[in-house]
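Notes from hallway chat w/ T.B., transcribed later so I don't forget. T.B. wanted the structure written out for a chain they're using in a teaching module, and asked if we could keep both sequence and structure tokens in one place. Agreed to drop them here.
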Amino acid sequence: METMTLLEVLKGAASFLGKQGVESPRLNAEHLLAHVLGIKRLELYLQFERELGETERAPLRDLVRKRGAGIPLQHLLGTVEFCGHTFKSDGRALIARPETELLVERALTYQNKNSILDVATGSGVIPLSLALERPEAAITATDISPEALSLAKENATLLGITSVKFLEADLMPPSTGQDDRFDLITTNLPYIPSAEISTLSREVQHDPLLALDGGPEGLDLIECFIPLAAARLNPGGHLLLEIGKGQEQAVMECLRRHNYRDILALPDYQGVLRFVEAII
């Protein structure tokens, strides 16, 4: 049976992915090959001369073909790295983006936030990352999608977290009339304008439409949510939102209309004003 060295297989996979228009084709090929071989990606560099037979190359070919067709790398691996932890990732929820880590980092700078709500939680990366750093906090997470919530609960189990309460809800959890206010509310609501959905990358097209579509201007849910959050924040409580490019002025004006103060737009890694924070 014909064999090829690991390096030859890796170069072939990267070449194919590059021709299919996949960004960072070598890195993608490395992740897929490491996944097939059950080793860490960096261990590949110590095994370039290792010979791979058909039993190892066949499953790689299948994954590389799917990646070349635009299926996200995270779906093929079944995981995504976020804030230094590994989370399950599949088509039930939006793939966690690296820039959203900055939202978590910003939230952790706030002091005395003992009750936290994350809305439109998706795979749960925000509340679970906060729970790992603030185990003493009471954290609630909501999503309208039962599929997304099932993934979030699986991630909680994977990380050994039992303190986060997950609720199926359209934005805000039901009001109980007592102890239903929060010191901090975080959210990454859908903010893509409807007409732009079809122009997004092949990879993003695999995310649930429910997690992307923010209405004609991308602001429908955000503008609906801002007054709802004001009614459920404790005095002095923080609201922290992730938003789309160019939406900061409209979001900040909406916050002002609903009597928030200390409103501030914050940049992501590329300098895009991606987050807005405010105090009620």
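Follow-up for T.B.: The first helix runs from residue 6 to 19. Might be a good example for the class.
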